[in-house]
Design a protein that fits this description.
The protein is mainly β. It has a domain at 37-87 and 97-132: Immunoglobulin-like (Sandwich), CATH 2.60.40.790. 8% of the residues lie in helices and 31% in strands. The strands form 2 sheets. Strands 1-2-7-6 form a 4-stranded antiparallel beta sheet, with no helix packed on it. A 3-stranded antiparallel beta sheet has the order 3-4-5, with no helix packed on it. A hairpin with a 3-residue loop joins strand 1 (44-48) and strand 2 (52-58). The longest helix is centred in the first third of the chain and has 12 residues, at 17-28. The N and C termini lie far apart (72 Å).
Length: 147
């Protein structure tokens, strides 16, 4: 075992202001590619069953007639607007965290779907889309013949 002497440099442990600021921004900012683009503030769940693609979107406080759903190619688009119920004419807000304004969320569907047979249901602020898979998208099993 060898004991080595390390020269003590008191400034080595000091972090510069620039390094501190860089670390602060790295830790607090959302990395490119991981953030949703502006207006994509609609949370979705998407999964598939044997016969359909299911999409669930949380849209609390929105009336079903204020939501527009479309499928173009393999892209599903859900648009709408969070409307402000009343405008408060007070001098100061303590909190104003509810969001208002338009939203538009586009996602790529994992398979081709039959848009003309799609169903949309709305219950308790959750929009549920049932998109039947096209025949081309459904998996088919192949039987093995034994000789």
């Amino acid at each position: 075992m060898s004991d080595s002497i390390v020269r003590w440099e008191p400034l080595r442990d000091l972090v510069t202001l620039r390094e501190t600021m860089n670390r602060l921004f790295d830790e607090s900012m959302i990395k490119p590619g991981s953030a949703r683009a502006m207006g994509e503030d609609l949370d979705l769940d998407m999964y598939q069953t044997k016969d359909e693609v299911i999409v669930k979107a949380g849209v609390p406080g929105i009336k079903p007639e204020d939501i527009d759903i479309s499928v173009t190619g393999d892209t599903l688009t859900i648009k709408g607007e969070f409307k402000q119920e009343e405008k408060v004419e007070q001098d100061r807000y303590f909190y104003q965290e509810r969001r208002f304004g338009q939203f538009c969320r586009q996602v790529t569907l994992p398979v081709q779907v039959k848009v003309d047979q799609a169903q949309a249901e709305f219950e308790h602020g959750v929009l549920t889309l049932k998109l039947p898979k096209s025949e081309q998208a459904k998996s088919k099993s192949i039987k093995i013949k034994v000789k």
